[in-house]
Amino acid sequence: MSVRKVECPVCSKPGLEIREVPYEVPGFGTMLIISMACPHCGFRHRDVLCLEFGEPKRYEFVVEGPEDLKARVIRSSSATIRIPELGVLIEPGPMAEGFISNVEGVLDRVERAAMMMLHFAEAPSQRARAHEVLAKIWDAKQGRLRFTLIIDDPLGNSLIAPEDKSRVKVRRLTEEEVRELKSGPFVPIDVRWARATGQAEGGSERGEG
Ligand SMILES: [Zn+2]
To answer: Which CATH architecture has domain 2-196?
Structure first.
């Protein structure tokens, strides 16, 4: 793990701590788990950074059954997640953070969002829509619904990594597609610095969830 201190982007005081832990994804490469915290103003951010790809990419994986729910998913703060069969679109907002999880973990997040939708729904049609989405999510979580998980990341810091690598479709995003994506929060990560110091010491810590 490496720790360094830089100027905080929020309060401008020196002392923002950036911790970086390398995280190996077999068959795909090395990621960096990054967490930053400012002791002065309380600013916090978590993200993941890919050391080897770094170009705008789309990952597409068809989930066929319960086993596929375990496929690893790494989502950086700049990534957009889509599940067309569930009508799901998760765009990176200004508070977006990165996470390392699996397909099931992504469904958990979608489920929480749908529960909120149900909670705040006023019109009967909105409630009906929320119930419909929740029913599909529960089927998906049991592995009874075939669906497609798509992750677009203009910075190439995200990936879907099932055991059988050949089942993921990966392609470069076109410039037009990149323009249509939301870019997520601005975070003070010096990408070149991180890439250059990539293969640090081995001990890795898993940031699940
Ligand atoms: Zn600060």
So the answer is: Sandwich (2.60)
Q: Residue 42 — left, alpha, or beta (φ > 0 → left; ψ -120 to 50 → alpha)?
A: left
Domain ranges of the chain: 2-196
Selection from 49, 101, 113 nearest residue 77 by Cα: 49
What is the distance in A from the centroid of ligand 1 to the CA of 47? 17
Average pLDDT over residues 121-149: 92
* Alpha carbon distances (Å) from 123 to 47, 129, 149: 37, 10, 29
- Please give the distance, rounded to the nearest whole angstrom, from the Cα atom of residue 10 to the centre of ligand 1: 5
Query: What are the backbone dihedrals phi and psi of residue 47, each rounded to the nearest 5 degrees, phi first?
Result: -155, 170
Taking only the tens place, the pLDDT of each residue in 39-86 is 999 999 999 988 876 789 999 999 999 999 999 999 999 999 999 999
Around ion ligand 1, residues with a beta carbon closer than 5 Å are: 8, 10-11, 38, 40-41, 43
Question: Which pTM was predicted?
Answer: 0.81
